[in-house]
Amino acid sequence: MPLTKLRILTDRMTGAERRLGLRTLVALSSLPLFGVVAAFGLAPDTNTLDTPPESITEAIALPSLGTVRTASFVREGVTQSGDTLSSVLSRMRIDDLEIQRVLSTDAVHQLASSIRAGKRIQATTSQDGQLLSIQFEHADGSNLSVRRQGDAFVAEADDQLIESRVVMRSGRILSSLFGATDSAGIPDKIASQMTDVFSTSLDFRDDLRRGDTFSVIYTVNYRNGEPVGADKLLAAEFVNAGKPLRAVLFRDQSGREDYYTPDGESLKKGFLRSPLEFSRVTSSFSNSRKHPVFGFHRAHTGVDFGAPTGTRVKATGDATVAFAGRKGGYGNLVILRHHSGYETYYAHLSAFASGIRPGRPVNQGEVIAYVGSTGASTGPHLHYEVRIGSKPYNPMTIKLPGSAPLDVAQRAQFLQQTANWSEKLALLRGTNLAALD
Fold it and tell me: Which of 37, 138, 304, 421 has its CA 20 to 30 A from that of 310?
């Protein structure tokens, strides 16, 4: 219908007719809305309380779990000074019977006699405490694994390739040696080897001076591109109060290694100047001294070095163990018998190093015991004596025999083998050293 006609028709409606038409239009427009509501509603008089519940059971296939493994536990430890393999495993709460079974394995037995402080050890046990495997860390960073096989254990060497790299470092002393080596990034193992090498010519307790410089060339072992530990000092120079001391490592045809000057003179004297790396003299050699325990005057037949309990005590020369045990006022005592009739005494010890017993040969610098305060002692220290034919001599003043020099045939081999290290030391000497605390 045309819009004009619709408007005219609407105008002719009465008021009642208009209201009726409006209500009709609203009702018709609301039908879809009410239809939606009715779709979600309930029929009148519907009773929902009497509807019985229904249970539906359906079988579901579970995935296969495979073999259920027994829970295992991993325990880790680090070897400490004076440790044996047995003591480390006991500290890790491994059963004593299991420890004895492990130690009966030949490869592990050999390792147990050469255990070193600061090395990782990892043990895996079952839930009931049964030992399943152990992994040891060798001094060179390689590993030895021991696995349970029935009631026995089988050892397996780590087949990962160990790569050796040469590292060169230099430093200057402003306060202490180990403070300087730490600042230069030099491992403590290499710093200790340097002190051992120069200990027959330099007293690191009293001779160090501010401004002293040092250079070291050493090897570091790597496994899979990751460093696993410092290995060996190849060459070193220490300039003390302007006086240079140099050392290079030489390996002879038999495989024996020692340190020499670049000219081939042996640095290994007959005796070290001190059986301790770092200490202080607390009591000197004397023919008459008031004894701090007994109170009367008597001869003090050695030198006392003050040091904390547990400090490593080293053999001052190649020797054979003549005595290791308890002896009167000496407390725990080690007596070493050297060539040419010399004997050295190490007293008041807290403990003996592994394997130290009468008849065993020891090398110069080898750890034989640990500082303590046993016997007639008022505090931890080492009493050290040098005797010739049972007569005591002052260890600080007696002239001790040296080592034999290289023969003519060895000298030619030495110069060829060590020339490279001497050149590198000269190169390091010319570098600018950073001031190190």
Answer: 138
Q: Are 261 and 422 in contact (CB under 8 A)?
A: no
Beta-bridge partners for 334: 324, 346
Which residue is associated with the tokens 């200990």? 199
Question: Residue 388 contacts by C-beta under 8 Å, 6 or more apart in sequence?
Answer: 341, 342, 343
Asked whether residue 391 carries a pLDDT value surpassing 80, the answer given is yes
Task: Please give the order of strands across the beta sheet that includes 131-137.
Answer: 72-78, 120-126, 131-137, 143-149, 152-157
Round to whole Å and give the CA distance between 173 and 224: 35
Q: Report how far residue 97's alpha carbon sits from residue 113's, in angstroms, rounded to the nearest whole number.
A: 19
Token pair for 30: 């609301």
- Of the candidates 179, 246, 175, 185, the one whose C-alpha atom is nearest the C-alpha of residue 208 is 175
CB-based contact 227:162 (threshold 8 Å): no
Closest CA to 344 of 380, 379, 382, 299: 382
User: Could you identify the residue written with the tokens 């490592």?
Assistant: 249
Asked if 126 contacts 70 with a C-beta cutoff of 8 angstroms, the reply is: yes
pLDDT value at 256 more than 90? no
Alpha carbon distance 423, 333 (integer Å): 45
Q: 192-221 pLDDT, tens per residue? A: 899 888 887 787 777 888 999 999 999 998
Say if pTM beats, i.e. exceeds, 0.70.
Answer: no
